Amino acid sequence: MSAPAPSHHALTLRGWFRLIAVGLVLVVLVGVVRLVGLEWRQFEQARLAKQAVQKLRVTLIAAEMVSRERGPMNGSLGDLSPNGDPVLREKLQKARARTDEAFDAYQQALHDAEPGKAWLVRHQLAMRELSALRLSLSHARAQVDQLIGRSPAERSGDEIRSAVQAMVDLVPRLSPAMTLFADEAQQADPALAPAVWGARMASELRERAGLLGSLFTPALTRQLPFTVSEHERIDEATGRIDELRHLMVLRVESSPTSDRVRQAHVHMMQRYFGHAAQLLNGVQEAGRTHGRYGLNPAEFAALYVPEMDAIVALRDAQLAEAEQHSIAARERSRASLAWLAGLTTLLMALVLVMLLIIRQRVVQPLTQAAEALHAMGRGDLSPALPVPRANDEIAAIMGGIEALRQQSLERADLERERDKLIETLREQSTTDFLTGLQNRRAFFDAAEAEMARARRHGFGLVVLLLDVDHFKRVNDQFGHTAGDLALVAVAGVLQRGMRQGDLAARLGGEEFVVLLSHCSLEAGMAFAERLREAIHAEPIDVGNGQTSLRLTVSIGLADSAHHGLQLDALMARADEAMYRAKHEGRNRTEWAGRMG
Fold first, then answer.
1. Backbone angles phi, psi at 421, to 5 degrees
2. Fewer beta carbons below 10 Å: N end or C end of the chain?
């Protein structure tokens, strides 16, 4: 018995090897690309984090410079000399130049920023606010210059407070930009949150400390006790400073920080909350009692402002820590990318070497062995087997094939005995060997039992007989193998279309029978039509690259409501209807009709 020829549509071992090789390479590449993508995103996030910290730095410096400008401004407003102190005027001009320079840097940072979609609107708002902020700064300076141009006696306390307040109101307008850049940094790298928000808090403390000094200016200028409103605003500023102090202590103690930040925090506590606090307590005590301070605004600023530099140093230390962290993260990502590139090269080389070895040692010998086996199946023992490259499993396979070559005659005898046994089993089996449906005998046994249940319970049955049209033409044109495939296809449609409890069998040749349980004539006709159309729609693969064969069937139908509950009678009437369908042109369903 010859071995079946391989299907033209079957994927060979060589084809599988190529497919698996390509798939393996793609899987490796996809995995590597995924890892590279993750590392690249970390690399970009570190870059964005560093950029956000730098933008936060210039924003905080801009706020600091506005606050610092109030120091010489307060000194000039409190200057009692008739023509004004030129030294104070020069300090004020230098402070204003530093502020303008800081605002230019802030504007450049906004212009150079690369915000993502989530931050774009807030960046645009910050840029628009900057233009308005510079205009307000110009107006506030003009108000201050107008007061300084007057004699000391002509400067009222309300006007001084108004001028100071105009400058004080500028810094809070930078707060949204500070929050924006702090959010960007934290979003890019959550580990930066302690340092970034610590710097933000230190900046606010510097502003509150400067505001407190500015609140003393009117009283120091007049050398009079604080007014009620000044008392309230000073208490408010002092309360917020104490709150910030407490929060900063908690942050330093609870968050991992560098030695530089801890040292800067200790230095700030000694300078501002130590030395500066003593100066503030003395001024506040005088302001709440006799109003004799012993200091004018310029002298107070000369003592007070240097002590606030410790707050700025803490802020800068925290910003430096955040920036250094982002730089280190970027360097780690850069190193990971380089490591991945090397690992990818090595891995791809190993994969390619492995595939080459498998191809030479396994795929090629097995392909040649398969060709020899096919020849042996056709009775041709002449093709030579490949010489094994090593004493391995492939060599064992070749030895086995050679043994098969010597045992071919014995195998032929065994095959004949096997065929006889299969034939005997087919006759004894209840299943049709080709289609997997019940055979004739099994169907009649099951159908008689179903008839008995129908008579006992009173439900309807429908019998369908169907015959494949022009089946002989299929065998003659395409061969018996194609005919078998056609019958298997019809059986498959039957099996998919039946309900649980229905019976289907191959009666013989190209003829099939279906018993529909609990079924009326109308439902049976509908089922028959669906079955006929489904069979016609089923493509039959007959081999040799041909897949266009379509079958039709002629169906005869009889139902128990009109033809009784005797199986022989139903089968006979269905058979008559089926032959009528044949004579009426095939590919149709005919009902047996009413009994006369």
1. -65, -40
2. C
Q: Using the Cα atoms of residue 365, residue 367, residue 369 and residue 375 in order, give the sign of their dihedral.
A: negative
Structural contact between residues 318 and 195, judged by C-beta atoms closer than 8 angstroms: yes
Inter-residue contact 196 to 50 (CB < 8 Å): no
Q: How many CB atoms are located within 10 Å of the residue 386 CB?
A: 15
Q: Contact, 298 vs 85, CB < 8 A? A: yes
Query: Within 13 Å, how many C-alpha atoms sit on residue 76's CB side?
Result: 25
**Whether the Cβ atoms of residue 517 and residue 449 lie closer than 8 Å to each other:** no
Instruction: Evaluate whether 88 touches 74 at the Cβ level (below 8 Å).
Output: no
Residue ranges per domain, the chain?
Answer: 20-342, 432-591
For the residues 131-145, what does the mean pLDDT come to? 87
**Residue 53 half-sphere exposure toward CB, CA atoms < 13 A:** 32
**SS3 sequence, 69-117?**
HHHHHHHHHCCCCCCCCHHHHHHHHHHHHHHHHHHHHHHHHHHHCCCCH
Determine the Cα–Cα distance for residues 264 and 311; give it in Å rounded to an integer.
8
Q: Is 432-591 in CATH node 3.30.70.270?
A: yes
Close Cβ partners of 237 (under 8 Å, ≥ 6 residues apart):
208, 211, 212, 215
More confident residue, 143 or 2: 143
Spatial strand order of the sheet with 461-468 comes to 503-508, 511-517, 461-468, 553-559, 589-591
Phi then psi dihedrals of residue 590, to 5 deg? -125, 135
Query: In one letter, which amino acid is 290?
Result: H
Q: Using an 8 Å Cβ cutoff, are 454 and 461 in contact?
A: yes
Dihedral sign, CA of 221, 227, 229, 232? positive
Question: What's the chain's Rg over C-alpha atoms?
Answer: 49
Give the CA distances from residue 281 to residues 141, 189, 224, 290, 312, in Å, rounded to whole numbers and listed in that order.
30, 41, 16, 14, 22
Is the Cβ–Cβ distance between 369 and 385 less than 8 Å? yes
Q: Which of 272, 271, 199 is nearest to 238 (CA)?
A: 272
Where is mean pLDDT largest: 3-7, 81-85, 190-194, 335-339? 190-194
Whole-number Å distance between alpha carbons of 376 and 551: 36
Query: Which of 505, 355, 340 is CA-nearest to residue 436?
Result: 505
The two three-digit tokens of residue 158, written as one number: 């309300």
Gap between the Cα atoms of 99 and 104, Å rounded: 9
User: Which residues partner with 543 through β-bridges?
Assistant: 546
Distances (CA, A) of 206 to 229, 343, 402: 22, 50, 93
- Condensed to tens digits (0 to 9), the pLDDT of residues 528-555 reads 999 999 999 988 877 666 666 889 999 9
Place of tokens 């991992």: 256
